[in-house]
Amino acid sequence: MVKLVFPKDETLFDTHTNVQNTFIREVGENGIESTLEWLTSMKNSA
User: Is the full-model pTM beyond 0.90?
Assistant: First the structure.
């Protein structure tokens, strides 16, 4: 069992990076094919 001591009980926090959140949102909004194209463009611009 895990007991959360920080942050305060019932506090929400995100464990994803901004890129991960964008990927998840893009899949939901545009589907996987379009999102994979976006991901490829992100990789090529890095």
Answer: no
**In this structure, which amino acid lies at residue 3?**
K
Which of the 8 DSSP states describes residue 10?
A: T
35 domain residue, yes or no: yes
Separation of alpha carbons 39 and 37, rounded Å: 5
Confidence of residue 43 (pLDDT cuts 50, 70, 90): confident
**Containing domain of residue 27, as a range?**
15-46
Taking the C-alpha atoms of residue 21 and residue 35, their distance in angstroms, rounded to an integer, is 12
DSSP at 3: -
DSSP sequence for 22-45: HHHHHHHHHHHHHHHHHHHHHHHH
